[in-house]
Amino acid sequence: GENVEQHPSTLSVQEGDSAVIKCTYSDSASNYFPWYKQELGKGPQLIIDIRSNVGEKKDQRIAVTLNKTAKHFSLHITETQPEDSAVYFCAASPGYSSASKIIFGSGTRLSIRP
Amino acid sequence: GAGVSQTPSNKVTEKGKYVELRCDPISGHTALYWYRQSLGQGPEFLIYFQGTGAADDSGLPNDRFFAVRPEGSVSTLKIQRTERGDSAVYLCASSSGQLNTEAFFGQGTRLTVV
Q: How close A83 gets to chain B, by Cα (Å)?
């Protein structure tokens, strides 16, 4: 089955600097890669996703890259702000014809230093 | 409702007891997921439904865990003979059921087995 590994487990950056979180996956059939942000006491919330026919996607200060050959994908947050502090999860899903299970990484706790 | 609703938000039970956790998905969503999240970990996949049927239950840890979705809407996760190791936050998510679409999470039920 699919296995998703995520690094680093904790990350502290100065406000205004960039943060990068990296993930690898094992199942070559995976073709959907969402990123979730989880704040304390809340459920995960989707912040951006990428599909296997796209190598890069950007939404304002957030960008994701995907390298299917290497089975790597990354989240980039630029111009970090205090409200970016949270736990971030990468995930992979081997969807075929409809929605299928989503396998999560172990998470990265991002702290933004003022 | 507008989002995924989970009840109760907190549940404390004694070891050996039976518990039921309820999930009300977003109206019209055909796919429903259950996850378990331990402190400091990513969501661990348990089971997912397409409509009334369990499309993938490969994440259920043992036969004490069971989930139903009899009318294709509300789902109940049932845990028999609870053990202290079952203590975790149980998350429910739903999606439209189409390929590679966003899963929306509820706030979770915090289960504590004493």
A: 19
